[in-house]
Amino acid sequence: MIRMILTADLSNSRITLAGMEDGVSCFTCQMATVKTRTADEYAALTRLLLEQRGVDCGALEGCILASVVPELTLTLRQALELLTGIDPMVVGPGVKTGLNIRLDDPSQLGGDFVAAAVAAQERYPLPVVTVDMDTAIGIGVTDGGGHYIGGVIAPGVMVSTAALTNRASLLHNVVPQAPGRIIGKNTDECMRSGLIYGSAAMLDGLLDGIERELGQSATVVATGAWAEAVVPHCRRKDIHVDAELIHRGLWLIWKKNQKR
Fold this sequence. Notes:
Elements: E1 5-10, E2 14-21, E3 24-32, H1 39-52, E4 62-67, H2 70-84, E5 89-90, E6 100-101, H3 111-123, E7 128-133, E8 136-142, E9 147-155, H4 157-167, H5 187-214, E10 219-223, H6 227-230, E11 240-241, H7 245-256
Parallel strand pairs: 1-4, 4-5, 6-9, 7-10, 10-11
Antiparallel strand pairs: 1-2, 2-3, 7-8, 8-9
């Protein structure tokens, strides 16, 4: 029987960890992505987070990492090995995923895109579109034949917020929450409307375009830090929000690579 494995999703803004047993998360936790931290620092922080949740680091069965921050991949890999005594599997070339990737250069596909697609294909009807709403909005498309054919990368909510406040002198930082109406009555409401309703409208438009190119309707699955804030405001009401999508995909990939 497989015991708990630790899955780690390293993005540009945060590192999300999950303890996965039989494809279900027993816990999740997060820490900020800080490029100046050492492996020792990440190991200490991770140990603290896991101990707070009653997890025995030495009892983990395995560990797998997806990273879109190349300069931190080795650091976090070393941190997890220090913590668990296990050399983590890193999603990339040489790792079995089961995906039939039809891109110009499959090696460019990020580990988070890979994990999301693996999990989506295992649970949802094809064709399926995955939407990871984090630092960026990363969309992956699997066609009706099970081929991963490409996707879209667009600015996420926080990237858009930073761009507005850093480049426009009269605009200030806001908490990106839906203001309750599209037509704002003050600067704060106008910015929040653009960030949340604008992201929802962009997503609706991109999904419409993807389905036109596919020539058929698709299942859409959203995950990531901003999915629950944005998806309810989409015109499209059949988007599945699956908070565990990437971590379940990492668990499936880890299983595929174990010796029978």
